[in-house]
Amino acid sequence: MNEFNPNILAFCCNWCSYAGADLAGVNRLQMPPNVNVVRVMCSASVKPEYIFKAVSQGIDGVLVLGCHIGDCHYLTGNHRTAKRIPLAARLLGKVGIDPRRVRLDWVSAAEGEKFQQVVTEFVEDVKKLGPNPMKEVRF
Amino acid sequence: MDKKKVVVVGGGIAGIQASLDLADRGYEVHVVEKSPSIGGHMAQLDKTFPTNDCSMCILSPKMISCADHENVVLHTYSELDGVDGAFPDFKVRIREKARFIDTSRCTACGDCIAKCPVKVTSEFEEGLSNRKAVYIPFPQAVPRKATIDKDHCRMITQKKCGVCKKACQAEAVDFDQEDSMVEIDASAVVLANGFDLMDATSMPEYGLGICKDVITSLQLERILSASGPTNGRLQRPSDEKEPRNLGFIQCVGSRDSNTRSYCSSVCCMYATKESILAREHAPEVDIAIFYMDMRATGKGFQEFVSRARDTYGVRYIRSRPAKIQPVNGDSGVLMNYETRGLAGESKTEEFDMLVLCPALVPSPDNVLLSQMLHVELDGEGFFETPDLAHPVDTTARGILVCGFASGPIDIPDSVSQASAVAARVAELIEGGEDS
Amino acid sequence: MIRIGVFICHCGHNIASAVDVEKVVEFAKTLPGVVHAGHNLYSCSQEGLSSIKKSIEENELNRVVVAACTPRTHEPLFRRACEQAGINKYLFEFVNIREHCSWIHSKEPEAATEKAKKLVAMGVAKAALLEPQEEGESKVIPRAVVIGAGISGLAATASLLGQGIETHLIEKSDRMGGLLKDVAIIGPEGTDSKSLIEAFMSDIRTSPKAHVHLNSRIKELKGFIGNFEVTIGNEAEDLKVEAGAIIVATGACELRPEGEYGLCEHPQVITQLELEKMLSKSELTAKNFVIINCAGSRQPGREYCSRICCNASLKNSLRILDLDPDASVTILHRDVMSCGTAAEALYMNASDKGVRFVRYSLEQPPQVRAEGDGLFVEVFDETLDEKIDLDADMVVLATPLVSPDDSVETSKLLKVPRDKYGFFLEAHVKLRPVEFATDGVFVCGSARWPVSARECIWQGQAAAAKASIPISEGKVRIEAITAEVNPDKCVACGNCVLACPYDAIEITDRDGIRAAEVNEAQCKGCGTCVAACHNDAIQQKGFSSRQLGAMIDALVRATTEGTQ
Question: Residue B405 sits in which domain range?
Answer without folding.
Answer: 5-97+179-194+363-430
